[in-house]
Write a structure and sequence with these properties.
Radius of gyration: 17 Å
Number of domains: 1
Order of helices and strands: EHEHHHEHEHHHEH
Strand order of the largest sheet: 2-3-1-4-5
Helix content: 40-55%
CATH topology: Rossmann fold
CATH class: Alpha Beta
Number of strands: 5
Shape: globular
Distance between the termini: 15 Å
Amino acid sequence: MSGNSRIILLLSGPLAVGKTSVADAIIDMGGFKRLRSGAFLAQYAESNGLQNDRAGLQRIGDELDSSTDYKWLIDQIAVPAFEAECGQRRWLVDAVRKPRQVEHFRSTFADDHVSHAHLTAPEMLLRERYEARLTSGGEYAGNTRYEAAIQHPNETAARGLIDIADTVVDVHHLTARDIATRILKTVLAPPASGT
């Protein structure tokens, strides 16, 4: 990794695993800047008069995935941000949900250091967190039960990213800062010297 290369950290994990809290800790502790796919989708929905709840944003994301071969996250969010802030060297993508997105980041930014961290947790903990968020409203507002939510193709794909991640962290019994520390230790470690 050269001195001018970027560090691009891709974060993934199942619904309610705590990606946002971990991302906040990584940003606070590691000097990363967040690339927000959710904010882009919400703005896209508003600009086009489309449904702006969780289900609506998922549909928009699915349509963009299909029409761009999953490259919208790079073309519409990452590249403009990199060009606007060329001095920023550490970026966090919160979050990727499809293997093709990870492939595109790795191939498009082959000269940079792209690292993929996946968060996981026991199913019982994920269910408890989801149900607590369901009752508190916000983006989880509605009456979609956990069993239905985890059957959505996006959720199935996001969970499967554990198989291609560089770093996997089980979040059970860890604080967001503990998790961020583990990820940053891996991502910011100096590369092994070649022979």
